[in-house]
């Protein structure tokens, strides 16, 4: 009987410790999701306020920004130079997150996200990767995409074909 009670206590302790561990992990992940969301919300806020310095402090030194055009792939320095005139005008762009998903690497060092944004271009998709550097989440890669409803994709393709056929041709010859 003592062995049975001891076994029961041992099983209960094991279940309780696993439950606490899962709760801790869930709590930690929720806190980290809030931290990553704050970085992304601040990114949108600082652009809307034309706060150049704080906007770019959210990016890692070695980061990439991929814009909506095929040729818009910039490192941080290039993106800073490209966007400076917009910030200097006192208003860069104004994006608001409509829906956001955030995921983490097992070691908690990386987070990746996708979100739908309300923009002057209507719905866009932001996606990217953040890395925890020195205890702070920094953007390593950001991708901005214009969404195209399936019902109008043929019409959009006809409009952009003359512009992008040249780009396609140039890219194929550079291979």
Task: Give a nutshell description of this structure.
The protein is α+β, with helices and mostly antiparallel strands and 175 residues long. It has four helices and six strands; from the N terminus they run ααββαββββα.
Describe the protein in words.
With 175 residues, this protein is α+β, with helices and mostly antiparallel strands. The protein has one domain: Nuclear Transport Factor 2, Chain: A, CATH 3.10.450. Helices cover 50% and strands 30% of the residues. It has four helices and six strands. Strands 2-1-6-5-4-3 form a six-stranded mixed beta sheet. The longest helix is centred in the N-terminal third of the chain and has 47 residues, at 2-48. The protein is globular, with a radius of gyration of 23 Å. The model has no long low-confidence stretch (mean pLDDT 90).
Order of strands across the widest beta sheet?
A: 2-1-6-5-4-3
CATH topology: Nuclear Transport Factor 2, Chain: A
Structural class: alpha+beta
* CATH architecture annotation: Roll
Protein name: Nuclear transport factor 2 family protein
Pfam family, one: SnoaL_3
Signal peptide: 1-22
Keywords: Signal
